[in-house]
Amino acid sequence: MGGIVGIFNSENAHERIFKALRQMQMELSSLGEQIFFIFSEDSEIRCENLEELKRVVREYDDLIACCVPKSREGDFKRLKRFFNSLGIQRVVADAEIFNFDEIESMRMSEGRILDALEGAYAICLWHSDGKVQLLRDIFGLRPIYFAHFDDCFAFSSHRNAMSAMGFHFSFELEPRTLLNYKNGRLKFASYLCECEGEEAEAAKDLKGRLLSLLRESLSTITSEDFGILFSGGLDSTLLAFLCKELRRKFRCYTAVFSEAEEASEASGASGVKGAKEAKQAEDFVYASRVARELGLDLRVIEVKIDEVEGYLKEIVPLVGADVVKVGVALPIFIACERAVADGIRTLIYGLGSEELFGGYERHKRAFQAGKLREACISGVKSMFRRDTCRDLAIARKLGVSLRSPFLTKKVANFAFSLPDALKVRKKDAEFQEKVILREIAADLGLKIVAERKKRAAQYGSKFHKAIEKLAKMRGFKRKREYLRQFHPEAKMRLGCLFSGGKDSTLALQAMLEAGFIVDCLLTVRSENPAAMLFHTPAVEITDLQADAIGLPLLSYETSGRSEAEELADLHAALEDARREFQIEGVVAGALWSEYQRRRIERICKELRLKAFFPLWHLNQETAMRIAVRNFDFILTGIAAYGLDKTWLGRRISDEDVDRLVEISEKWKINVAGEGGEFETLVLDAPFFRKRIVILASEIVEEGANTARLVVKNAKLEEKEAWELA
Fold it and tell me: DSSP state, 720?
C-alpha cells in the first residue's frame, strides 16, 4: 500500500508533485517511514527526503512519482522489474500483488498484463513514445483519480493528493477502464477479465472446486500472524475454519454496540443468553458461540453509546455521511483499531461474497426474473462506489491491509459460471441465498452458520441503532443530517443549478463524489429559445430527472427577453432556495463560459452564497468523454456546421465523440457544445434511482444544420434492483 501521483504539461510540476507526495506521506504515516520514487522523461530518482526530491526535479513539466512504505520497497522494485521486462521503464504503483511468482514465470505481451495481474493495484505506465496509461484492478480495490484542466493532466491514487496539487474536483477512473493520455488528449478503453468458468458435472465437484480456490487465495496471505473480521456469519466462519485447517496463526475480532450501561471487552463468552433476552447484538451472540465451538481466539469489542460519537468524528470524514456506509464502517474500523493495538496489520474478511454468490434481497428478485448472473456481475462492478472505497479509507487511516479471499479473478470467474440454483434456491416457501456456501458449511459441520440468516453488518453489530439513538439525542430528525455535521464538505447545504444536460449533471456528480451533499435542484425555464444564461431544449424533463435523482426541484419561469430579466429571475430563484432549504452554496456546470460564471458569482455574492464550478476549465473533449462513460444522454438540439438531425434523440457514444472532434477541427465548433452548437439531455446516471424513457418525440428542422428534438411524452422507469447496488 502506498500512493501514486503524476502531472503533465505543468510549468510548476515539481511544486505540485511535492505537495501531493507530502499529503500522501501524511496519510500513510501509520505505515511507518516512506520511500519516494520519481520519474521524468530522462531520469529516475529514489530518495528518502522530500525536500531533497523537490530540489532535483525543478526543471521538468512532466513527472510521475510514488510514495512507498519502506517495508514494501522490495515489492515495488519487483513489480517495476516485471514491467521493465516488458519494455516499460517508467512505472509507479500503489499495489499489493498477490501472484508475483506466477506472473514472473509467465512469458507475456503487454496486452496480457490486465489478465495476468492478481491483487489490489493502481498503476501508471509511462511509455517511451510519450503515452501514459492508468489502470486499476477489476474490483476497484485501489482507486485512481484524474483531472484534465487548462491543458494540464494529473492523477493520483489519493483524492486529497489531487486537492494538494490544486485539483479540488477530480474524477475517479472506473475499474475495468484503461485511461490513455498522449499529446494533450485523453481517451478511455474498456476491459473486463471475465470468463465462463470451468464446467463440472455435479454440485459436489463445484463445492470442491470452490473450496480449493478459497484455500489457494488464503495461501497468498504471507503474514505469519493476521486477523479476521468476524461476525459469526457464514463468510467469516468459513474463512476462519479454512485458516484453522491450514494451520495458520490468526485472531478473530468482533465489534458491536452495547446498550448495557457497563460494556466491557471480552475474549470470547460463555453462557451467553439468547440475543433477544440479553439484548446483545446478534453478531456478539453468534461470534461468541462459534468461537467457542471451533476453539477460535476471539476478541469482542463492545462499544457504549458515549464512545460511538468519537468514532463517528473519525469515520465520517473518511467515508462520507451516507448512513449505510457509516453503519458498516463502524464495526470494521473499531475491529481493525483493536487489531493494530495487538500488533496485527493484516486482516481478512468476506467482502465480495454477497455479490458473487447472490446474498442480498435484490439477488432473490433477480433470480425470480431470470437475471441472477447479470445481477451478480453488476453488483461486483459497482462495489467500488460503495464498499472498496469505504474499506480502503479505513485501512489507510489505521495502517492495515484488508484482504478478501473472495475477491480474486479465479473465484469471481468461478462464481459467475455457477448455475443459479447454487446461489439462490426456494426452500419452504422462502428463498435461501448463497446456497453453495451454505452447503459447504453444512458439509464441514458448521450447521449453526449454514442456517443463520443474512444480517447486514450495521444490523448484526447494532451500530445502526447507535446512530439512530445519537441522532435523536442531538435533536436531529434524520440520521443523515446528524452525520453530515462531522464531514467538512457535507455539512454545507447546497443547491444545484440544473438544466438536465450533461454539464449540470456532471457538475452534480463531481460534487457528490467529492463528499458534498446537494439538498435541492434549481431550474429556470426560459421562454426564449436563444437565452444566453439558460439551457432551453427539453428543460421540462427536469421534473422527471429530479424524481429520478430523489431531490426536490425548485422550478422557475423567465421570459428571457433581456439579460437583466434573466438575472433578476435567477436572483429570485436562489433567494427562494436559500429561504426554503437554507442553502449556503450553489453548484453550476459552467466549463469555460466567463459570461455564465461571472453572472452567477455576482448573484451569489449579493446573496452571501458560495459558488462552486467543479468543471471550470475542464478540457472540453475530456468532459465529453467522461460524460459518455458515466451517463446515458442524447442531443436535443443542434446548431452548427457538420451536425444534422441524425444526431438527435440517440445515445451518444465514444465513437460519436471521435466524430465531434473531427467536426470541431474542420468547422471550428466547440466539441462540448458550450457555444450553443448542441444541447443535451441526460436520461440515466449512476446516482439516478430511476431512468427516463422517451415515449414520443418530434424533430423540428429549421435548416440543414439547425434542428431540435421536442419531447412530447416521457416517463420514469424503475431500475432493476441490482442496478441500484
Answer: P
> Domain with 126 in it: what CATH number?
3.60.20.10
pLDDT in tens, 43-52: 899 999 888 7
Which cell numbers hold the place of 631?
451517463
In a domain, 196, yes or no: no
For β-strands 225-229 and 346-348, DSSP reports them as parallel
* Domain boundaries, position 334: 208-466
Measured at the CA of 189, the angle between CA 186 and CA 193, to 5 degrees, comes to 150
Number of Cβ atoms within 10 Å of the Cβ of 431:
17
- Domain membership of residue 545 (yes or no) is yes
Rounded Cα–Cα distance for residues 431 and 445 (Å): 22
Same domain for 181 and 247?
no
Q: How far is it, in rounded angstroms, from Cα 636 to Cα 617?
A: 24
**Cβ 636 vs Cβ 537: under 8 Å:** yes
Domain stops at, among 155, 190, 225: 190
Confidence category of residue 610, pLDDT binned at 50, 70, 90: very high
The DSSP code sequence of 230-274 is --SSHHHHHHHHHHHHTT-EEEEEEEEE--SSS---BSS-SSPPP
Model confidence pLDDT, tens digit, residues 158-176: 999 999 999 999 999 999 9
pLDDT digits (tens, 9 = 90+) for 293-327: 999 999 999 999 999 999 999 999 999 999 999 99
User: Could you tell me how far CA 427 lies from the centroid of its own chain?
Assistant: 35
Neighbour count for residue 528 (Cβ, 10 Å) = 16
SS3 assignment, position 20: helix
Q: Say what the alpha-carbon torsion angle 650, 656, 659, 663 is, to the nearest 10 degrees.
A: 50
pLDDT band at 187 (very low <50, low <70, confident <90, very high): very high
For residue 474, with 0-12 CB atoms within 10 Å meaning exposed, 13-18 middle and 19 or more buried, which class applies?
Answer: exposed
> Which helix or strand (DSSP H or E) is residue 548 part of?
helix 542-549
Nearest to 286 by CA among 325, 236, 242, 243: 236
Closest CA to 144 of 162, 168, 128, 118: 162
Torsion of CA 406, 409, 412, 416, to 10 degrees: -170
In this structure, is the dihedral angle defined by the CA atoms of residues 670, 673, 678 and 683, taken in order, positive or negative? positive
Largest CA distance in the chain: 83
Provide the strand spans (E) within 169-326: 171-172, 177-182, 185-190, 225-229, 249-257, 298-303
Same structural domain, 526 and 592? yes
Could you tell me which of 619, 616, 614, 626 has the C-alpha nearest to residue 652?
626
What are the residue ranges of helices labelled H in 28-165? 50-56, 73-84, 100-104, 113-116, 159-164
DSSP sequence for 400-463: -EEE-TT-SHHHHHHHHHS-GGGT-EEETTEEEPSHHHHHHHHHTT-HHHHSPPP--HHHHS-H
Give 320-377 pLDDT, tens digit per residue.
999 999 999 999 999 999 999 999 999 999 999 999 999 999 999 999 999 999 999 9
Alpha carbon 600 to its chain centroid, in Å, reads 30
Q: In this structure, are strands 63-69 and 34-39 parallel, antiparallel, or unpaired?
A: antiparallel
- Pairwise CA distance, residues 179 & 171, whole Å: 12
Tell me if 720 sits within 8 A of 375, measured CB to CB: yes
- Give the position of cell 446516471: 685
User: What is the DSSP secondary structure assignment for residue 515, as one 8-state letter?
Assistant: T
- For residue 339, which amino acid is it? A
List the end-to-end C-alpha distance of the chain, in Å, as a whole number.
27
Tally of domains in the chain: 3
